[in-house]
Design goal:
Layout lengths: L1 H20 L1 E4 L14 E3 L21 E2 L2 E2 H10 L3 E4 L23 E3 L5 E3 L5 H11 L2 E6 L6 H12 L5 H8 L10 E4 L12 H12 L8 E4 L7 H10 L9 E8 L16 H12 L1 H15 L6 E9 L18 H16 L4 E7 L9 E4 L2 E4 L1 H9 L6 E3 L1 E4 L2 E4 L2 E4 L1 E8 L2 E8 L6 E6 L8 E7 L16 E5 L8 E6 L3 E7 L1
Parallel strand pairs: 1-22, 2-5, 2-13, 5-8, 8-9, 9-10, 10-11, 11-12, 12-13
Antiparallel strand pairs: 1-17, 3-4, 6-7, 14-15, 16-20, 18-19, 20-21, 21-26, 22-25, 23-24, 23-26
Helix pairs in contact: 4-5, 6-7, 7-9, 8-10, 10-11
């Protein structure tokens, strides 16, 4: 009998200890920041098959379209609730002269897309086509101004052409080109990667150039966004913020770019489909580092902007692998597997948890390029694992963040460790939504979600997972990675235990 009680005692202790290892505490008593819906934003560039073929096929195409925009892509993006879309680049933006892309298409000049494959760009998709597309899918446009090879005058005229209702040569030109009313464009990026493809500038120089341009990019409610750092370039942020001293009213946000490369090496980045556990682990490790980048850049920004008026935007993020075999390497085409779903869920959790300072994030890129949510091949289309994660996480858009603290086990591979779990939580209309990722590809994890003092009657869930960590969705085949219902227990005594399968992303909602 004594042995029985001892065994029972140790089993209960062991069970409690196992669960205590993974506990997500929801601080429902604290008020978190609003999670701007723009954190769920996207990026589209004149690069490979993103715009042409991916979004725009032209009115005469055999592929079903609405005014030249692919019907299947339009429907899928509407369903996804894309809050904001950045355009026309990327590196392309600093070679782009917007007047080349307006007026009758047959009169538009062609240029060579020097950054991306050296292909001819016929400018048939320009300002009108982009802004009308945004209206069609119900998204806010974010325009990136050419600083590298453009002029202040060109920038000022673009702003006038797009947003003004005054009588002026630019608004007359817009009307002549078929658009009577101005568009509502709030987000204006002043340059792209000016430390690299956008002009190879030093931060001190760019800060002055930015100030020069920003004075001419004016409009009510405008958010002017300066080129921020790449990854851990803290010197860029420091010098930029120094350069803005006394002129913080000219800048509403600075951008951060961070791409996740499995090997961390731009030469051989790693395959998007053919990988084992080593590359799985390294990819997740190399994505998690963004949390430290964000924290340290914000610390620097706070020194110069103690009232925290200037926001951080992660306006390019996602995985970057070796191009798919037999594709133009300049087109940056890659597959999107279960690993990308976990990368997406993890980054979105991190951005949610910094909602007080991160006002926008744009995954690169929306269709057919890098970590896209959609891939097309002539008339066929697939929704990628990343698409389903965005769809599942949409519950966080404009919800109130619930501050959380997480105690969790590690996932260890060949002596190196990363946290096995990450999470974020929010509340909207009385519904609590918790998103969790299990980074361990070999083992399910059991997480206690703890909300002492609050009772919920029911819980329901959704999951994005698949049998193998390198499963992906391909043309003409049944989807391997998709979103499905996920069975969860009933919450009891301020607690809900969730068993998250290996390599999966989960949403749990408490009502
Ligand atoms: O997204 C691809 C490229 O990555 C963009 O053009 C550039 O801004 C970044 O280096």
């Amino acid at each position: 009998m004594k042995t029985y009680f001892l065994t029972l005692f140790f089993s209960v202790m062991a069970f409690t200890w196992m669960n205590a290892q993974n506990t997500l505490y929801l601080h429902l008593e604290e008020e978190g920041a609003k999670i701007n819906k723009e954190i769920y934003g996207h990026f589209s560039e004149h690069l490979g098959k993103c715009i042409y073929e991916g979004i725009y096929v032209g009115e005469d195409s055999n592929i079903p379209n609405i005014d030249g925009y692919r019907t299947d892509v339009v429907e899928a993006l509407k369903e996804l609730k894309v809050p904001v879309l950045r355009w026309p680049g990327g590196c392309f933006a600093d070679t782009y002269h917007w007047k080349d892309g307006i007026g009758p298409k047959e009169d538009r000049p062609s240029i060579v897309n020097v950054h991306w494959g050296g292909v001819t760009e016929d400018n048939s998709f320009g300002t009108h086509e982009f802004l009308n597309f945004c209206e069609l899918i119900g998204t806010e446009p974010y325009l990136s101004i050419n600083v590298g090879s453009g002029t202040v005058r060109e920038a000022a005229e673009w702003v006038e052409y797009v947003t003004s209702s005054n009588e002026s040569p630019m608004t007359e030109l817009r009307k002549k080109n078929g658009r009577e009313d101005p568009w509502d464009v709030k987000f204006w990026g002043i340059g792209n990667e000016t430390w690299g493809c956008g002009g190879d500038m030093r931060p001190e120089y760019y800060a002055d150039v930015y100030r020069h341009f920003a004075g001419y990019v004016r409009g009510r409610g405008f958010q002017r966004i300066a080129v921020g750092p790449s990854g851990s370039d803290y010197n860029w942020t420091e010098k930029l913020m120094q350069g803005f001293s006394g002129k913080n009213h000219l800048v509403q946000g600075i951008s951060l770019h961070h791409y996740t490369l499995p090997t961390g090496n731009w030469g051989a980045k790693g395959s998007s489909t053919d990988f084992g556990e080593e590359m799985w682990f390294k990819t997740l490790h190399n994505t998690l580092v963004i949390e430290e980048f964000i924290r340290r850049h914000l610390e620097i920004m706070d020194k110069y902007d103690p009232h925290k008026r200037v926001k951080l935007l992660v306006d390019e993020w996602g995985t970057w692998y070796d191009p798919l075999p037999e594709t133009n390497p300049g087109f940056l085409q890659q597959q999107n597997s279960m690993r990308d779903a976990v990368v997406a869920g993890t980054n979105l959790n991190i951005f949610n948890n910094h909602a007080d300072r991160i006002s926008m994030a744009n995954i690169a890129q929306i269709v057919n390029v890098l970590q896209s949510v959609i891939m097309t091949n002539e008339e066929q289309m697939v929704l990628t694992p990343t698409y389903y994660v965005f769809k599942m996480y949409n519950v966080h858009q404009d919800a109130q963040l619930i501050p959380t603290s997480l105690a969790c086990e590690n996932y260890t591979f060949e002596g190196e460790s990363i946290p096995a779990v990450n999470a974020s939580a929010s509340v909207k209309d009385g519904v609590v939504s918790i998103t969790l990722c299990n980074l361990n590809p070999n083992k399910a994890v059991s997480v206690d979600c703890n909300f002492p003092g609050s009772e919920f009657k029911s819980a329901e869930g959704k999951i994005v997972t698949s049998e193998k960590m390198n499963d992906y969705n391909d043309f003409g085949q049944e989807e391997k990675v998709t979103m499905s219902d996920f069975k969860v227990k009933k919450p009891t005594n301020g607690n809900l235990n969730v068993e998250i399968p290996a390599h999966s992303v989960v949403l749990v909602q408490l009502k």
